[in-house]
Structures
1.
Amino acid sequence: LFHYTNVMGAYGIITSRSLRNKKIQSMNDLSEMRTAIDCFVRQIPGLLKGAEEWERDDFMESVVTRLNCSASINICVACFCEQGDLLSQWRAYGDLGSGLSIGFASSSLKELSQERQCSLLPCLYNPNEHNQVLFELGQMLLSAYDLVAKRSNSQNKKENLEDLISYFVTTFFQLAPIIKNHHKKKKKEWRLVTCP
């Protein structure tokens, strides 16, 4: 897998023998996070279909509010590409052709991700895959909501649901960096995503 960078970035990687992940809030293309959030929001009517409980609606509204206000979430990524000589990557990350494309052995990155409790994942470009992954994530969230609602008493229910939302938002943003616009599928990108 290849990481495109400028000369100073390459110098830093080589001399420190380490990669520096970037906070998702400071990524070049913030629309990437928006793509994942918007796709999740589109899944909500299907997730709530048949549910007559207004509290679930309010809960999902709270989840979406937190997703939209996630400036403080501490998720970081490093970006890689399957191709070491791709014009769009040179333009965006390789200092307009005067940078470098550094190749990393996939097996080494997988080992690193396991050692550091990170995830090394290929990006998903197909909207149907986006829908499926985020619908399933939403189903897991609502199953957890049902358990919390059933097992909590009136005194600790609100706090327990807030904890559930926090956990979900963190999980969501660990997944969100691999949800990519289908127009960018030629890049064949991978993400190394940190856990907070």
2.
Amino acid sequence: KLHFAEVFQKKGGFDVVMGNPPWEKFKPLDPEFFSNYYEDYRELSKEKQKSKREELLKKPAIQANYAEYLKKYEDEAEVFKKHYKLQGSGDLNLYKLFLERAYQLASGNVTFLIPGQITVDQGGKDLREEFIKQKVLYKIIGLNNQKGIFVNIDNNQKFVILFLTKKQKNKQVGVYGWIPEFDSFKNEKLILVENE
């Protein structure tokens, strides 16, 4: 808000915020940490990773660094939880943090490509409830990756393009089902659901 003070003073936020945020959970990852001490750690089987981890943690310097690494994530998670109230329970997920931040910064439209879990998982409940309560949700396009819309991503993965607007209250939400390719929009019917 400091860097774009004029935008917030005149308009209350950005007209449009769009994104495809990172989809990983915000938590410490052993492969990330222990690869610094054993280069091939990531290539080991789970069982061998556990054994190598135990071996490395016998060294006091590595043990101290690991404790510091875990504490860093714990401290940052606490900061996120203070500033982002719609994250629900469980692990923090970066896409939900980015979505909530976009919602905070927007005075107009927010459009995000995010995992389909936002529509059903317990961790996304607070965001969903906020969007429905404030009547800002106006369209969800559900995509599946069966036809490889996204390369190098599992074909069972589901995605949504989520559309929000703060410009008007929406009594209905347009929903497209889990379609396998963008051309399918021509053949799929839009379902209107009451935004209650």
3.
Amino acid sequence: GAALALAGVMAVAVVFSTDNPFNRRGSRLIQRTAAIFDLKERSASDRWFQWVTATLMIRAHPVLGVGPGNFGSEFFGYQKQLRSERRYAEAFYMDAGHSHNEILEIAAESGIAGLGAFLLILGTAGWRVRFSPAPARMVGLAAGIVGLLAHSLTMFPLRLPASGMLLWVFLGLLMARADDPVARPLGREYHPKGLA
């Protein structure tokens, strides 16, 4: 199970790091990943600026945040405050509706209380899977959740309806099936022998 997942990740990395028919755009996964942390790149410096701005919001409103959905409307005031610091004076002016980091955005909008509730839900799901009678059967759902959360470190997939809903569906399915020792395939009715 885990070896197969690792082999799949390795195959994707090779496909998107080499010249081949599946990689016609010439994408380089390793170079693109490294560019996330290169502040000379515009997208990286913009994200860094958004993250620092989010931390200012968290410091100013630590318990309940600035309010759900208010990151974008509060961004300009904090952007102005941040530009007064010499190292950010040259940063581009931007209209940021999101922080490009879900953890920071949840903390900025909902405070430590909201972030704590979100992490409690994730922790409860992880705990239930870990101690489930059939944890190996939960690997697919757990991998989907981990993938969405990894993506949310540099983007805002939970704010987009399709991917945001996907996280909650994965969590719901995972939580509903974590206590099921048989973990039957979804969509099939279970009929014990002699009762069908």
4.
Amino acid sequence: LFFTGIVRRSSDIEEEKAWESIIAKANNNGMIIVSATGNNNKNRIYFTAGLEGVISVGGSDEVSQRWVHNFMRGSNYGDKIDCVAPAFSQPTTMFMRWRYTNVDGTSMATANMSGIVALLKSVKKSLSYQDIQDLIKKYSSHSVIGWSQELGYGLIDTFRALSSLKPADVNTGQLIKNLRNIKLQIESILSDLGGE
């Protein structure tokens, strides 16, 4: 994953000094670190997600609110959260070989946000951590009403964020067409899951 310039992190390792150094080096080398807030339904952000230089991602549900399964399991929240991404019933092959199954959790949200960051960097490789943060602030669902402890700036509008990037060497129209094809493929997978 390092070659794409994105690191996905969703564990709870408390080695602050070492991580601060790793994150600073990664950011200085153009890498973006995306980390999950955690699944304890608490006002507490997982360790690495709370550090400077990390995109802190919480989970959203099917109506774009903070994902909560029950009183013990749900998206963690707090003063370090940057944004949310879908965490409810996400298709994956994580637990079943060769078949899709649906899984909940902020690790799924982090995977979704990592994909968005990778897509943005595929259009403009020079995007830094701060550039991604600026895109989140400008093109997320709460960019007008502002940041909140439960959702950060909300769900990023990938289409608008991509459309704002205008590198001369990229065919944005083709990229958007590819995104629509990906969306159709995801809808097909979801339809197949619903039919079982």
